[in-house]
Amino acid sequence: MTYHFPYYPVKTREMHNHHMDSTIWNDFRFRDDDIVISTYAKSGTTWTQQIVSQLIFAGAEGLDVAAMSPWLDLRVPARAEKLAALEAQTHRRFIKTHLPVDALVFSPRARYIYIGRDGRDVAWSMYNHHATANDFWYEVLNDTPGRVGPAIGRPPASVRDYFTDWMRRDGHPFWPYWDNIRTWWAVRHLPNVHLTHFEALKADMPGEIRKIADFLGIRIDPANWDAILEHCSFDYMKAHAPSVVPLGGAFWEGGAPTFINKGTNGRWQSVLSAAESARYEARALLELGPDCAAWLSTGRRSTSNDNQDASSLKYLTHDRR
Fold first, then answer.
1. Which residues of the chain have pLDDT under 70?
2. How far apart are CA 305 and CA 315, in angstroms?
3. Which sequence spans correspond to the domains of the chain?
4. How far is Cα 23 from Cα 83, in angstroms, rounded to an integer?
5. Helix, strand, coil shares, percent, the chain, to 5
6. What CATH number is given for 12-319 in this structure?
């Protein structure tokens, strides 16, 4: 099927749970140069926020990235407070979301960066995130007024059990995984959407940063390049975690460095059996199709078959001329 612009996704649903309230996007006022950084979660969101901050602020030190770049659809802090803080920003805004594309308001005025990561690596990172959460985390998520649905409970002792349940119940106890990947993959050809991948960032961070800068229309001054690379490195972010992690890491045992855990892939290989891993790969193929499943696993996209078909366009129905 031939795809013609200017068709863009339309919001078709709301998502509510212990973490999310997607209705805030209905009240958000876009600017022409806004940047939206999106992932399922635990896929390189914080890393990409750091990269974007360094591009916007030309390699500056001491940036409070967590405050500058809020998770818009997180239920806390209160909607009015969050929207007012974003409205008051005078720099180029960069906002975080974990929503599928049809649960947020998609604007042709904004630029969207989506980061993928193999689901096995996502689940392992999510387990660390969940298992090290402290009582304050549970209190905020479960007891703040406005929660829809059940409270989030504590994880099992075994990461294998956690992964098994996450697979069986599609992202439980957080939110659906496959749907998030599918919706963003479906819009990958839009001129204001850029896909990157955790594995690609690890393999060639300088190259990926340059691609992101080109996508955002940001010229990199060569004099700032070394500082940008240093400030986007894992070691730098770990050492300066309180300025990168939400609330300076107040939600996790051990503080902000716990949130920025290992930054590695493949930890599941020593835990999952070959049969368990094969079941995940078969599920990915079934849910996503061969091209998207291959990209999600490796970070590499096919150039010969990277075309949109009718099924991938079901979310792209609105003409905004």
1. 1-6, 247-248, 255-264, 303-321
2. 20
3. 12-319
4. 12
5. 45, 10, 45
6. 3.40.50.300
